[in-house]
Model the fold of this input.
Amino acid sequence: MNPSQGQGASVPTYAAVLRVPRYLPIFLANALSMWGDFIARVTIAAVVYDVTESPLATATTLAVSLVPSFFGRSLVGPVVDRFPYKWVLIWSHLLRATCVLGLMWLVLAGASLWPMFLVLFVLELIGGASTASNMVLLTDLFEDRHLYARAVGLGAMSEQFNQAIGLAVGGALVALVGPETGLLFDLITFVVAALVILFVVELRPITGERGRGLRGFTRDLTTAATDLARHPVLARLVTLSAVACLAIAAPEALAIPIAGPTSWGGVLMASPIVGAVVGILVIGRRDVHQQNRSIVPLALAMPLPLLLTALQPPLIVVAVIFFASGMLQAFMVPLQATFALVTEPQLRGRIFSLAGSVSIAAAGVSYLAAGWIGQHTNAYLGVTICAAVCLGLIAAVAATWPHRHVRSAVDRAYAPTSSSHAA
Done:
């Protein structure tokens, strides 16, 4: 029996989500894969710092891990739509495991930094296919779209925790047993994830028409970008997500400069993450239609607490401000769930990839902007200015928000279905 049956419009529990056939092992495999991503980043960053003792070189390592995610998600969309996502997931995990083997060899050989940067770049580039394929898999896995919306919230919380765990585990492994053992653990995470997908995920045929050859590949990507830009709902959801990045990124980008020589840097960086988890828990208790009606109000409210940083309050107050803003970021959960369900099934791979690349680019620009503003004013004012600019941009999006189109799209996306669609 489907665990979601009988729930109707009520809000399903996280236990009901985890009881959906095949979801739990996939959920755990995703967590392992994410740990692997962050462990690789931290391990190589630690190696770079050990060699150079340069904060700039270390920061460059982290930037190298972000840039390919943008290109990977942009360019692999048609790949996800051309091959069954089961095999895309398996091969992306295995290819990333191969990249980790390359990193291990380079570390043991004492190679120069540029080959490490190149391999790390390829590892993160391949990850774009894995991210998009996993999103398509989840939309197929849940027949009950209310359960799907709940699963998106659970995945968002998991992502926050896994980011913290991956960074912490990576740092601990490098410190305790050295970078080679850290990378070995990273390798194991990708192999295990590939095995889970191999034995758990059902093979589904691809649907829809695909262009042939490189020209057809390029045409598919261009068509997807045009469809995304012209869609009355998807385009607005992506735009809101992108402009909100400025206020979301500023606290993390400027937390350490605000903390100064004190030990509050980690606390300030963690505050919006903890707030986001609490916000996800709160909004997850509401019906999906209520969640979607709250997207714009929460987005408008999200930068407001950050304006108080202009007063340069005590650090404990700054932590509370960051926590409050993090809670209000919960609007991203219904935004992401609705975006996924509104997208046509045969276009999901490329549309998800393109939207993800826009978000990554917006996050990267936001980090740079926050750092630049903070350097030319001060860290407190940097957060305030970013929040004020973000508020203006969100207000502009809200002023032209297509409420009727969004409401109709949500009604269609979460309408009950009679056919079983479990993967």
